[in-house]
């Protein structure tokens, strides 16, 4: 008997099955009975993700009594409503959440703590404004759970999951001379042949996220095949970022139908707009502040996607709130974000979803 073909066949089968998840896989229903809206959960993968989403112990709370930090320290522009004790506590927490362990406070500050000479301090100040903006103006997405610097950074000076504009596939796979950032450290459309940069169109630009056209043949659909593939690429990346199936938000009977989807779809609607807001109003304006080696291959600043915060789980840090321990990062309430268009929440026959 010729054993070589059998050996090759065995290796081939092992290679194929190696990419699959072995049982048991748990199924959790998250939609109406009979709709097939279930989430497939691998307990082994969940254990790995849980270990990466442990919330650090909070520092002891500080009193709001005493003089304001802005009255004692120079050049306090953002947390100027905090007492000295509260201000110092937030600074110490930030050094644990963001700064490299061997640098701590020196990562943002030099010998003169009031100086803005280091770009890291200028960026950190704007990021504090952004965190307060998220916790007050984007409750439609972050709810009362809120965010802190740790939500994205997880102990890294630069968040692990960021993206840059795509300079082209051949260049995106390597590094430019003196540049230590890839095009993207977030998903790549699940290793499919779908477009690998949906972010520039949807999380920086405001292109319509739509597959079904507004008109029927023979007038012709208003959505091209290229736009459809780009939309699916974004959806695959969101699915990967949250570690969920498509039916976490959608009823696959009709992806466009809002009345058949889940409440999570509305939350995701706001999340896409939130990412767009942060990229355009907080991150992109910082481009001239960063040194060249912190920029992408096209000279653009690192930007956020769903994976920047979620990092593989349906709620960042499994929904555990760090804001309750650091209410100083909540700031003051401001104008609520735009509501989704009610007209688009109609029956599936409308065939259109809001952008």
Structure, described:
This protein has helices at 3-18, 43-52, 69-72, 84-97, 119-137, 139-142, 149-153, 169-172, 199-204, 225-242, 263-283, 306-310, and strands at residues 26-29, 38-41. The chain is globular. Mean pLDDT is 81; it is low at 170-185, 333-337 and 341-355. It has twelve helices and two strands; from the N terminus they run H-E-E-H-H-H-H-H-H-H-H-H-H-H. It has a two-stranded antiparallel sheet with strand order 1-2. The protein has one domain (57-350): Photosynthetic Reaction Center, subunit C, domain 2, CATH 1.10.468.10. It has 355 residues and is mainly alpha-helical. The longest helix is centred in the last third of the chain and has 21 residues, at 263-283. A hairpin with an 8-residue loop joins strand 1 and strand 2. The chain starts with a helix and ends in a 45-residue tail after the last helix.
Quick description:
This protein is mainly α and 355 residues long. The chain is 35% helix and 2% strand.
CATH superfamily: Photosynthetic Reaction Center, subunit C, domain 2
In whole angstroms, the N-to-C terminal distance is 62 Å
Strand content: under 5%
The helix/strand series, from N terminus to C terminus, equals HEEHHHHHHHHHHH
Task: Kindly state the number of beta strands.
Answer: 2
What is the number of helical segments per DSSP (H or I, 4+ residues)?
Answer: 12
Could you give the order of strands across the largest sheet? 1-2
Percent helix range? 25-40%
CATH secondary-structure class:
Mainly Alpha
Structural class, by secondary structure, is mainly alpha
Our Rg estimate from Cα atoms comes to 23 Å
CATH architecture: Orthogonal Bundle
Count of the separate structural domains: 1
Unreliable spans are: 170-185, 333-337, 341-355
* Fold-level CATH name: Photosynthetic Reaction Center, subunit C, domain 2
Q: Tell me the major beta sheet.
A: 2 strands, antiparallel
The best one-word shape is: globular
Question: Could you report the average pLDDT, rounded to the nearest whole number?
Answer: 81
